[in-house]
Amino acid sequence: MDGRRLRAAPASAASPPQLSSIQSVVLDIEGTTSPISFVTDVLFPYARDNVRKHLEATYGTDEIALLRAQVEQDLAEGLAGAVPVPPEEAGKDAVIDALVANVEAMIKADRKITSLKQLQGRIWRTGFEGQEIKGVVFDDVPPALEKWHASGIKTYIYSSGSREAQRLIFGNTTYGDLRKYLCGFFDTTVGTKREPRSYYEIWQSVGVDRPSQILFLTDVYQEATAAKAAGVEVLISIRPGNTPLPENHGFQTITTFAEILT
C-alpha cells in the first residue's frame, strides 16, 4: 500500500474529487471532528459564564487593550450589540461591565474575530486545566487520525477558534491526547475560512507541491467553495445537527471518517 494516498469510499454526490495524491488532510472542528452541540452547549456557555472573572484577573493586560480596540472598530462600523467602553478613569468595574456586554454580544452573534477567539481560548484553558471541560470528538475520529499518521499523511486543524483552543480540545479529549497525530493548527490569523486566499496560505505552509494534494474536510458549504476555488480537494462532513446543505451543491459528502480509505 502506498503510505501517502487517500481515496474516498463510494458516495452519492456527483464528481468525486481525485484523492489518490493526497499528502495532507486539513480538518474543520465544529460539525466535522466534533458535534456542533459540544461548541454551542459546552464551550460557548463556559466562556460566557466565566468572561467577567477572566477579565477581572487579566485587567490591565494587552488582552483588555485588544478587546477595547475591537469594540471601537465595531462602534465605528455600527454593529449591533456594540456599546462604548468608558475610559480607564471611570474605574475598573465600569470598564469590565462594558467589555462583558460587548463580549456577550459577540458570542451571541458567533463572531469569527481574533480578539474574541483568543479570549475564549484563554478562558477555556482554565476549564480544561481544571478538568471542568473535556474535548469531544466523534468516535470515528481517533482511529482515522491514527491511521493517517501511520500512513505518513500529515493532518492539520483549521478552525475559527484560536490555535490555543484547538490544542486544548485535542489535547484533552475523552479519548486522551490526540495531538500526537496532528502536525499543526491554523486559525483566523491565516485568514477567514470563507476566503480562497486562506487555503492558499495553508498550502504555502504545509509543504506540499500543489493545493490539490491537500484534502479539506468541513461541514460548511461556503468554506468548501472557498477551498475548492484555491485548488484544494474537499469533502463535506454530514453529522447530526449540522446545517443542511444547498441542493445540488456538487461536493462529495461523508458521514464518517471511516469512509475515507487509505
UniProtKB/TrEMBL annotation:
It holds the Pfam family Hydrolase. GO terms for biological process: methionine biosynthetic process. The keyword Amino-acid biosynthesis applies. It comes from the Eukaryota. GO terms for molecular function: hydrolase activity; metal ion binding. InterPro entries: Enolase-ppase_E1, HAD-like_sf, HAD_sf. This is Enolase-phosphatase E1. Keywords: Amino-acid biosynthesis, Hydrolase, Magnesium, Metal-binding, Methionine biosynthesis.
